[in-house]
Amino acid sequence: MSKTLFDKVWDSHVVQQIEDGPDVLFIDRHLVHEVTSPVAFLGLKNRGVKVMSPKRTFATADHNTPTINQHLPVADPLSANQLKALEENAKAHGISYWGLGHEKNGIVHVVGPEYGITQPGATIVCGDSHTSTHGAFGAIAFGIGTSEVEMVLSTQCIMQPKPKTMRINVNGSLSKGVTPKDVALFIISQLSTSGATGYFVEYAGEVFQSLSMEGRMTVCNLSIEMGARGGIIAPDEKTFEYIKDREFTPKGAAWDKAMNYWSTLSTDEDATFDKEYTFDGSAIEPMITYGTNPGMGMRISGGIPTAESLDGGVATYKKSLDYMGYKEGDSMIGKKIDFVFLGSCTNGRIEDFRAFTEIVEGKKKADHVTAWLVPGSHKVLNAIKEEGLLDTLQAAGFELREPGCSACLAMNDDKIPAGKYAVSTSNRNFEGRQGPGSRTLLASPTVAAAAAVMGVVTDPRSLV
Amino acid sequence: MAYDKFNILKSSAVPLPIENIDTDQIIPARFLKATERVGFGDNLFRDWRYNQDNSLKSDFPLNDNRFSGKILVGGKNFGSGSSREHAAWAVYDYGFRCVVSSFFADIFRNNCLNIGVLPVQTSAEFLQKIFDVIESDSDTQLIIDLPKQTITIDSTGAFENFEINSYKKENMLNGFDDIDYLMNIKDQIGEFAKNTPL
Ligand code: SF4
């Protein structure tokens, strides 16, 4: 029987099928961070069990870490306590732990691929919804809750009903100035934040094939923002080239054996999906959000939709625009901004810093704009320095911070003040997501860079 | 973590007729620094319940004396966003045992089922009916009958069936969680692990 890529990976990991119930799914890789794991480890302790497969488990500190002066003790006692708990739990269970200051430290979804933990055909989970990032490699990767973290720690399995399948094709090629982030924001604006709930999405078509691995990660990362369980892209030469020789990828004979499996990982020609969408890549333009969920995105050159043009949800829509301080029909171009955040597991990789630098090169940061440039990991940080991007950024008036999730969820001190506008390369523009009362405009690194130098929302294509 | 068994729940309800309520609203990230599961109910809907000076926002339904009960009724697409189970904990710890909406985000639904909060998905029309009825009489009782899989508005007798798979239903009725199940088949999992390619 012909199968989709998703079916192939899922089916090969089912330990047991429960009638009118979930599948028991085996998990190959479990990524752990400080915020969603302590209660799970506590559960293990209460049950008197050890972690079943420490070798399949990797821990890093990222959500709750400062992005300046990481060499100093963490000032906030609650955060410090959480970091200490993870360190102790990792040690007690023999899990490799990349804590604050460790050379491999970084955002969990950035370091996973960097060190080859992320592999095609694997099942990967983490207590963070943007685990979908790893689907860029042809893995089934999704976020889980703390009870499920406890399940995977104790039994290396999770119990979930098999999601339905969806394929999103984007054909043709992207216009100049259009980035992977724009493609994702465009798709979410078309499907809405619940349009893919209950589905696992395969991205297919020329546009995704032509993207770099970094670009594919950005797209898969945002799958959850349309409600999807995750996103997946079939592995190809680019994928294998990327993972080869990384620390945790198989070597020698083991690599050949893995390749035998990996080469089967594509959707069969006549396989069918429960739902399918097709878009034309050349029609996509740089995007920006104007509201309080990621589905409220628009062409940067367009106007904010009127409530009339929506089908339903008018009260919620107006509440959202009120929060943002915007009006229906407003143009976004020229809107004043106060902060710029470049970073997160969505857009905190080296390619994102290259794109940002390219725009700001030879220009100056607008005086009234505070810019937080936060690399996704130490590896990214080092690359920024080695490639000379740091010099260019500094010449333009920008500083670099140390790696972490930072203003993506504003658990540490990196909070956007109430009422202020931030152009952010992260993934969520919910009320208060970046700090109580903060107002977030989601966009690509390119759009963020243009806003940073102009001080207002600007079409980046007008700058090059 | 074990939780109380769920069978038939009859209670008044708190209405939140807002769509796309995300988990950042249910529990903001700055309250995720705990290493134990205690006190999350206090910060449920923190920024909607309190002003910045920590005074209560009187117009928010949770602060409105008319509304109380063990059932929370939310607008479409409830629980989207972050996977934080803390959101479900906050709902549970505040005292809710059931959330009713016309649509739930996946991870939130799962998290609820794992900790003993029953997500009840109704049609959009029935949800509107519930909002209307509570609006006109805030003491309106809803009856959630898990064995029969029905939700009923007591005063009018209007009801609807809801879905839950029989495995999860059994768990909720008995207060079991998935880990209990998985621990019992650990040998089988161990065998499976030996033959995985990665
Ligand atoms: S950067 Fe944001 S989305 Fe990514 S792992 Fe950190 S908190 Fe989660």
Properties at a glance:
heterodimer; A: 464 residues; alpha/beta; Aconitase, domain 3; 5-stranded parallel beta sheet; 4-stranded parallel beta sheet; 16 helices; 18 strands; 16% strand; B: 198 residues; Aconitase, domain 4; 4-stranded antiparallel beta sheet; 8 strands; binds iron/sulfur cluster
Structure, described:
The complex is a heterodimer of chains A (464) and B (198). The longest helix of chain A is centred in the first third of the chain and has 17 residues, at 77-93. Chain A contains 16 helices and 18 strands. In chain A, helix 2 (38-47) crosses helix 5 (146-155), helix 6 runs parallel beside helix 8 and helix 13 packs parallel to helix 16 (445-454). By secondary structure, chain A is α/β, with parallel strands linked by helices. Chain B has a 4-stranded antiparallel beta sheet, covered by helices on one side. A 4-stranded parallel beta sheet of chain B has the order 2-3-4-5. In chain B, helix 3 (86-94) packs across helix 4 (106-115). At the A-B interface, helix 2, helix 3, helix 5, strand 8 and helix 10 of A face helix 4, helix 6, helix 7 and helix 8 of B. Bound molecules: iron/sulfur cluster (SF4). The site of iron/sulfur cluster has 14 residues of chain A, from helix 4 and helix 12.
